[in-house]
Amino acid sequence: MKKTKVGIIICHRYHRCAGGKCFRALREREGAFKRYSKDEELEVVGFTSCAGCPGGNIEYSPEEMIKNGAEVIHLATGLIVGYPPCPRIEQFKKFIEVRYKIPVVLGTHPIPEKYHLVHKELATWKSAWWKKLLVDLNDPLEIRKSYD
Ligand code: SF4
Questions:
Q1: Is the pLDDT reported for residue 133 higher than 90?
Q2: Does residue 17 contact residue 10 with C-beta atoms inside 8 Å?
Q3: Which pLDDT score, from 0 to 100, does residue 19 have?
Q4: In testing the pocket of ligand 1, which one of 17, 50, 60, 95 has its CB within 8 Å of the most ligand atoms?
């Protein structure tokens, strides 16, 4: 069976989070984890926060994850749904991909419906960049509600 090793970096605003939504989405192949087949094994080999604005842990934590076998790094959905969304998310992705030559996926679990509604009203994600990104995280309504 194919196995992929995953590292997850969360927004420090949620640093006490136990990872329930991310791990559930990984198991159920929801949100950004839809990209992996259910026949494929996923193993989380690293889970940490950015260490707080401006994200000092982005510079070094991928190295430890890669040493532990990480083949892809996910920046958690909290970076997208928190208010304001992380202003450095694009920089983080570019930096990790250039520095560590490892793909970075934006998002983990589906966008919870309560965040979806607020950000829709605020038009937070109206740019083409956000719209493209959110395709993966906009699961059907029932699933989004189940992540509230
Ligand atoms: S907003 Fe961005 S830089 Fe600030 S704590 Fe969250 S992920 Fe880190």
A1: no
A2: yes
A3: 95
A4: 50
Rounded (5°) CA angle 142-41-135 = 40
Query: Rounded CA gap, 134 and 146, in Å?
Result: 18
pLDDT score of 54 more than 90: yes
Calculate how far, in angstroms, residue 51's C-alpha sits from the geometric centre of ligand 1: 8
pTM (two decimals): 0.96
> Binning pLDDT at 50, 70 and 90, where does residue 136 land?
confident
Q: What is the largest CA-CA distance in the chain?
A: 44
| Structural domain range at position 69 | 3-146
Number of domains the chain contains: 1
Which residue reads 């939504």 in tokens?
A: 21
CATH code, domain with 82:
3.40.50
